[in-house]
Amino acid sequence: MSHIFINAIILGYCILYIGDWGWSKVKWSIDMENFPISLGVIVFSYTSQIFLPTLEGNMEDPSKFQWMLDWSHVWAAVFKAAFGYVCFLTFQNDTQQVITNNLPSAGFKGLVNICLVVKALLSYPLPYYAACELLERAFFKGKPKTPFPSIWAQDGELKVWGLAWRIGVIVFTILMACFIPHFSILMGFIGSFTGTMLSFIWPCYFHLKLKRSTMDSKTIALDYFIIFLGFLFGIIGIFDSGNALIKAFAIGLPF
Fold it and tell me: Can you tell me where the transmembrane regions are (predicted)?
């Protein structure tokens, strides 16, 4: 709900200035220097695979999972494209990495930022618990299966040191959010690696690994082509966003 409220505020503000929209500022040509960074950010915003098993397992009707997945991605793409386009028309070349920083009034900006904090707090548990579950399966199932003992007591309660570990994960992510500058470029850099691996390479690889014997040649070729695109986009994106990070840090920290 807070996310919808924030988007409504920003879009409403943009529509108020529709007469000043910079239609001529929109370039339909591709900037090959910045496009890989943008692609990394876009791919990073769709790396939802880590949440999907948890989400499907908690659905009242899991049979509708595929339908939900298809339409949610379609409408997310439509909304993100429209939102970015409208915001750029409004703020034009002054559009900042975090769009709320373009809002003119300090009070107005503060209200939106408070809503963003609420939205972050409400949306944090899903990826947090999914990440903790993966880490616990890999490291905290008990010896000799994993390097560390289980964080769960025999009565099913979380051990004290297990609680401390989970709090440590939260603190670590908060510190990253607070102290890592040039967030959009960093998102492009991470997205170019993890995003392409999660969205392009690994799904096709495991599809081939598990279903190759029942797949036709066209499907196999398509999977290999997607893997090729994943490696191509990933390498180019890492190179370009890495250079952008180096240039950004050479200028100085943004605070």
Answer: 6-23, 35-52, 72-91, 163-183, 189-208, 220-239
What is the CB neighbour count within 10 angstroms for residue 189? Answer: 24
* Among 96, 117, 115, residue whose Cα is nearest residue 7: 115
> At 152, is the secondary structure helix, strand, or coil?
strand
Whole-angstrom distance, CA of residue 77 vs CA of residue 84: 11
Domain boundaries, the chain: 2-126+166-251
Q: For 162-210, how does the pLDDT look when each residue is reduced to its tens digit (9 = 90+)? A: 888 888 888 888 887 777 766 667 777 777 787 788 778 888 999 999 9
Average pLDDT of the chain, as a whole number: 81
Predicted structure pTM score? 0.61
Contacts with 203 (C-beta within 8 Å, 6 or more apart), sequence order: 49
What residues pair up with 158 in beta bridges, in sequence order? 152
* Whether the Cβ atoms of residue 229 and residue 200 lie closer than 8 Å to each other: yes
Pairwise CA distance, residues 16 & 69, whole Å: 34
Give CA–CA dist 226/203, Å, rounded: 10
Helix ranges restricted to H, 191-216: 196, 202-211
Query: How much is the pLDDT for 184?
Result: 66
